[in-house]
Each structure stands twice: as structure tokens, then as C-alpha cells.
Amino acid sequence: MARAADVDLSSSATHADLVKRTSGTNDANNSKLLDARALYLALRIQKKIHTDAVANETIAEGLDDGHIASEEKRLKSLANNRADGWAAFTLGNIISATQPSITGSKKSFHWMKVAASYGYKPAERAIAVDYQNGIGVKRDEALASYWFNQSRYVGQVSGPYCGLAKTYTDGRWVPISTTNSRLYAQKCISDIKNLLKAHDASAEYQVGMAYINGDFPLKKNREKGIRYLYAALKNGYSPAASALIKAIRGN
């Protein structure tokens, strides 16, 4: 059967780049310093997530009560000053709903694009649809295709191949096949590597979690897992914060 170690990422140039991006001047091999830096950033981001969640909940309550104008100002402030993708996306939706006009469509698209620039997946898909249909922007099939690709989560790209590899490895519903297991595992890793080369934060997060948990087809490796989660967090992927804290503290 194909083993997790057979498709480890450690020998790739991608991993070498990862070490460079997550290390200090002279501590590439110092796991304690890596843990300390990663934990410090994770705790900072976790605090920000809590603060933003409270602010967003307050805004949502204001919108439910019909205070559109005042909450729009708060959303703009969060979007512009805190790089809050949810705020920009929500603002775009409000404008789309309350200003059904060409001007309104252009304003809505503007805020959706701001949200997309922060890596907010729902906004990436929204502007893909806008480009496809020419809503608030000139129709552009190439840009529509680009943003549809950007909006995909890493699991949507690599998940089927990884699942097939494990199915052939475990012999579930199909006979065990080393050849097919290895084939689909390599396809899975190939897709993930392409995303990692582009420093895709969600891909870094998924690979980090796979290394932490030893998920097929990767071999369990705490140091690599923390490096990938740390890279994802530095790259703006906030869910990596709680995963890093748990991985480092062990709770």
C-alpha cells in the first residue's frame, strides 16, 4: 500500500520557501523560537477575532433594527481601517439591496472587490458572477474565470483525489490498489503544491492541519504543521490562529 511518507512535501522547493518565510535570522532549525513567534501572533489574531466578532454582531443587530445609514458608516470604517472582508461584503450586499440602479450596482461591486482583495471567499465568488454577467462592471469572461478559481477552497481542489487515494489504500468499496492509491495521492499533492506555490493561505492551513493530524496522504509532523499554520496566519487566514494555539499548547 502507498504510505503517507511516500508523498511527503519536505523535499519540495515549496517547503524550503516556507522555512525561509517562517524563520528568523538564525533560527531556521529552532522549533522553540518558531513556537514562540507563532503563538505570539496567534494570540494577537485571536484577540482581534474576538473584538471584530463583537463589533460585527453589534452591526448585525443594528441592521436588523433598521439602522441602515449608521451601520453603513461602521461597516465602511471596518472595511477600510481593519481590512474586514465581512464588513466590505455586507456593505456591498446592502447597497445592492437598497440601491437597485446602475450606480448602485457599481458601488456594490466596488465593495465586493474590496472584500475579495482581503481573501473573503464569498466575495470572490460574487465578483466572479458580476464579471460573468456584467453587473456593476464590464463583462469579462477571463476575470470571471479567474475569480471563480480564486473562490474555490483548497478542499474543493484536492479533496476528491485525496479521498480516492485513501479509498484504494484502505480497500473500502474497491480492491486495495497500490498503483491507484499512489496515482491519486500524487494528483492530490500536485494540486496542493500548485496552491502553495502561489502562497494560498487556505492551502497552507489545510496542509498544516494535515501534518498536525497525520491525515492521509501526509506523514504526521508537528514542526511542519506549525510552520504551515504560521504561514497561513501571516498570510491573513485567521482560522489558523486557534489551530496554532491548540497545536502549540496541546489543548
Structure in a nutshell:
The chain is mainly alpha-helical and 251 residues long.
Description:
This protein is 73% helix and 0% strand. The chain has two domains: 127 residues, no CATH class; 84 residues, Tetratricopeptide repeat domain (Serine Threonine Protein Phosphatase 5, Tetratricopeptide repeat). The N terminus is likely disordered. It contains twelve helices and no strands. It is an all-alpha fold and 251 residues long.
Question: Which percent range fits the helix content?
Answer: over 70%
User: What is the number of E strands?
Assistant: 0
Low-confidence stretches: 1-7
Helix count? 12
The biggest beta sheet is recorded as: none
Count of discrete structural domains:
2
Q: Quick one: overall form?
A: globular
Q: Encode the helix/strand succession as letters.
A: HHHHHHHHHHHH
Q: Radius of gyration, Cα only, in angstroms?
A: 21 Å
Ends distance? 33 Å
Q: Taking all residues together, what is the mean pLDDT?
A: 77
Structural category: mainly alpha
Portion in beta strands: under 5%
